Amino acid sequence: MGDHESEAVSKKQKRRRGSSDEERSLTLVRRPEHKQERVLYVGCEGESTEPDYLDYLVKRFGSGERTGQPFRIVPVCKANGLLPEQVVEAVRQYAAKDETWALFDRDEHTRIPQAVDDAAADGTEFCFSHPSFDLWLLLHFQAFGGQQSGKSTNVVDKLRKADPAFRRFDKKNDKSVQGPRRQALEGKTKAAIAHAKSLVSQCEHGACKVSHYQAAPVDRISPRNPDNLPQSPRKWAARSGHALDCKVLDRDPSTDVWRLLVSLGIEDD
Ligand SMILES: [Zn+2]
Question: Region (Disordered) spans which residues (predicted)?
């Protein structure tokens, strides 16, 4: 732990507690458990649903009280949305040397292979959802299966019926995840992760197994880590447990968003 960080920790504790004796004993007890706040830049195609959901994650879990790992997410998005490869490009631009993730779905399918190549080239983690991020929301309420061929209609219909808070989801452009919609998701994280994982093992390809997923973080190829070798896009795309030759666009239906949560230590709420 560097001097700078120690100073930051003790200042934080001073704010929390009063007497210096108490502060010293607290420091001794707490310091070994202290974990540095993790900072993630997360690029999103959408301008509403994904950034709202990420904000929900930060508010509910970011302090680290539930998970033991404090974190902060900086969403990178744009009014009117970004295309998949723009998501990867934008998140790199803003993150500098920090950790980068990209969320994109199947909508702009012709651009997905390029986005995966770009993500693999510098170690940007990506969470692909097929047909859309909305599937991840739906999985909080129920299991789901069957090819959707890129159409979100079925997913959105089911989501609207799953909870009154989502009854008007995606009507009049309201794709937000705020207020009662957040409350509706609470307590269902474990189920959502289980449902999303089961989609890996149910993949039509046949050789995809969620037990093959790779959790270990990989340092980004950045000016700070110039010696890291880029991953092959196929290997990078197989980190979710899908087989090396299971094409990303064939993973219908699927969503990798659970990997972001598991990586943050969020497995239950
Ligand atoms: Zn697969």
Answer: 1-31
